Amino acid sequence: MSEPIDIDSTSMRALVEGFPKMLRLSSPSEAIIDSARALAKQGIQGVCLVGMGGSAISGDICKGLVRNVAEIPVVQIRDYGVPKYVDKDWVSIVVSYSGNTEETLLSFNEIRERRGSAFVITSGGKLQDMATDVPVYKLVDGIQPRAAVPLILSIVLPLIETLLGIPMSDLIAASHELERMPESWAKSGLTPNKVAHELSDVLPVFVGAEHLAPVAYRAKCQINENSKTPSFHSELPEANHNEIEAYVLYRQRRVMPVFLSSNWYDERVKKRIKETRSILSEQGVDSLQLESEGSTRLAETLGHVYRLDLASVEMAELRGVDPLSVPLISKLKKRV
What we know:
By secondary structure, the protein is of the alpha/beta class. The protein folds into two domains: 12-164, Rossmann fold; 171-319, 3-Layer(aba) Sandwich (Rossmann fold). Helices cover 48% and strands 14% of the residues. The chain contains 14 helices and nine strands. Helix 5 links the parallel strand 3 and strand 4 (117-122). Helix 4 (57-65) packs across helix 7 (149-164), helix 8 (171-188) packs across helix 13 and helix 9 crosses helix 13 (297-319). The longest helix is centred in the C-terminal third of the chain and has 23 residues, at 297-319.
């Protein structure tokens, strides 16, 4: 179980600022890791990540981090059920922070009906009650699921790495790197506050590639939920095969692309970013580029998440809205 969180859970700013600390407050038990090792040794056909919203994004990030080393499929499912190919030879990691997410509960039922192996990560609810015969990691409760990303990721990533038979990432080292990053942001001039001001009166489109594509999606979601403003995400190189033709209108619609840089991108992707920004500039469109921070792919990925999470809170404060509450999501859940 996660350690108690000595962070004000009624403040989204406090929760986001506590991202590095939360990254080292939880880790899977030896029993859970032993179960994953045993399954890996038996041989599995794939890993299925199941979740919705804030409970799912950690899986996206982890999937991005292992994309170049996984020898079996790693898929993320956000739906009422899982694809037919997810059978008894697959292992599922089922995440629902609340434990009551309708889509996730139905998916877990299907996995059990197919006699598939599973691990459950939750703070309680119906999912914990249902998971009587599978390993369960109990999360500390009482915080917004999207703020629990570092807690969930620190369980999901070691689990995936064990199932894939690859070395575990050093989350503690990454956590300490994240704590030092605000100093680098201040030197570069692109602090979360500066990013928030740059994006406060435009429609941001976060652009990532490879392992940072999920980070672009995370940024879009955080701006939507925390600052209650529209934003979108895009992925390279695919965007260069369609979206580029719309660039001429970006200036008229006040769209600002935000490119996430990486020291680990393929050189062809780095060139695409450079030339894409050049074409944007030729069309009179401003863009923003967030440079890579972090000595490892993991630290770099989480560094981007951390800065943009903070920027989303800064944007909420600029707009005078509460970044913690999500009234429309709550209303919809009651209706369905």
